[in-house]
Amino acid sequence: MFRVLVLVFCGVQAASAVTHSLRYFYTGTSGMTNFPEFVTVGLVDGQPFTYYDSNIRRETPRQDWMAKSVGADYWESETQNSIGTEQVFKANIETAKKRFNQTGGVHTWQNMYGCELDDDGTTRGFYQFGYDGADYISLDKSTLTWTAANQRGMTTKLKWDPLTAENQRLKAYLENTCIEWLKKYVGYGRETLLRTERPQVSVSHKDSGSGGYEVTCLATGFFPKDVTVSWQRDGQELHEDVESGEVVPNGDGSFQVRKRLTVRAGEKDKYQYSCRVDHKSLNPGEEVVRTWVPPSSNLLVIIGAVVGVLLVLVAVFAGAFFWKKRGDKKSYSSAPTHDNSSSGSSEKA
Fold first, then answer.
1. Within 13 Å of residue 130, how many CA atoms lie on the same side as its CB?
2. Global pTM?
3. In CA terms, which of 42, 140, 199, 238 is 20 to 30 Å from 85?
């Protein structure tokens, strides 16, 4: 879970066409001297908008639009909720340490929950916990029971499954309250969250060391973060030898993503490889397409250009020498009978 939290801070690429999302991440720690014992972060569409930790002991806004949209009572209520949850997390870590016969060392207890809303109105909700960097247990809304990720979580499952009222409350929150607040937050930050910025796409390559190439398609500067990037060979989409990177934020609030293609030795000149990018900011039916030009093709273009320049230079020097020789011969003849200074000037230019 701690690994998952780090990825979310960087912006996880959604597999489906999620329009908006609201996610909260709570992290309790033990044995970490340079890190707060408890931290909460709220994110709307991957953008942090609220923050609390056990050092500052205050829920604070992380977006200007959030600070302007709610009053002091909101922040006081959220602060009290975080203070109460902090105590629960500390207790859960100590319980887990005893249960697993752990004494010293670094330990973490984490909770990730939230909801998602698609363009077509489809909603999803999730509520899960992790311990010491691994998935621990998650709520199954359909059955109002808990699913243990491993044997460690079975004891907790047996304790939480009978808590029907609490499980129903969580289900109602994920399916109703969470969606309602997600819509509110999107409304508060609509100028930021509903903007669209076109992706800038480029293709580069490097030698893979075995005669082949690792070709990277970079799409950057786009918003929102949901994007489709695909590699095609002669117009057919490729899935093998393709590695998709995470969608990560840029410093200006936009996003970037890389998709790498491995081109095997001997195949670079047989096919045409192109990277295609689809994004909400583009017109309907529009895609950004960048074709990869293999190194050999680049070399031929460069050689052709150099040869062309050399031929031009040779022609210029040859012409200059020829006219100089003619000029030397004419210097011994009689003066011209007509004015040819204009044409002569043009020929020597």
1. 18
2. 0.72
3. 140
